[in-house]
Amino acid sequence: MSDHKPAGSATKPAGRPVILSGMRPTGRLHWGNYTGALENWVRLQDEYDCRFMVADWHVLTTALDKAGEIKANSREMFLDWLGAGLDPERSVLFLQSTIKEHAELFLVMSMMISMGRLQRNPTFKEQVRDLNLGGEISFGHLGYPVLQAADILAYRAHAVPVGEDQLPHLELTREMARRFNFLFGDVFPEPEALVTKFARFPGTDGGRMSKSMGNTIEISASPEEIRERIKPAFTDPARLRRSDPGHPEVCGIYTWYQKFLPEALPQVAEECRTAARGCVDCKKQLAEGAIAHFAPLRERRAEFEANPARLDEIIASGCDRARALAQDTMMRVHDAMGIG
Question: How many domains does the chain have?
């Protein structure tokens, strides 16, 4: 056993703890992405050493036919990230497919878990059902959590910001880290979950905001686009007439107020319950609040979009930094296993 990595040091960060998280590039980000992850990532930069990954390989697990769109969508994602406030000087922003060490560690980690354990993953079962896959399940799709584990462990992350639906995947990562450490020595921390408060944000139809449901509003949307998307949005279904009292706790617009205009909540709730205001006026006020909330983001995004050379430089630099970190991890893995 090599002494390159002293036993026990994997779980004790010398400086700030490391986090790793990523998003699949499937188009411009929406309000659900913002409240469920991106806004939280921006705050985490003050407390952690952050590595944020555009997970382009992960798109292939369920959308292989969309491979030709990944490059453009990845660029849009970087623009949204920078607009939202991710700082390339403080955080490592990178493209998954440029770091080949992820694939190598994926191979190693695939030896640390059984097929049965992967098949019992509740998230996988839900995807098979929701996507109506039946028997047409690829090895890559079944092994999605193993690649996700490799993404996390390549940077020896101590924590991962996730929604509740990703907790089973993170537990699989912890299991694989324990298995490796038991067999070869203490190389990987067992990453903890940082569960996001706004894990499920309502879309314009009242359901969870999702591109597949067509109920999203993009964080880069123009003021006019925001107004137009909010006009037909879901409210209290029992409020059929302007004079009917409402129930704000079941209204998607009221949930949006909690995020974008919290100072107006008491008045909005009271006037809704007493029918002192109608849904049209409520939506107009909310729209202007959301427009103001995202104005700084739109401005920053537009600055980066107008300077493609600068964007290229940021992406290349982030990938170089991520590659150096992942290469260091793989050197530790090789030493621990006595291979390579």
Answer: 2
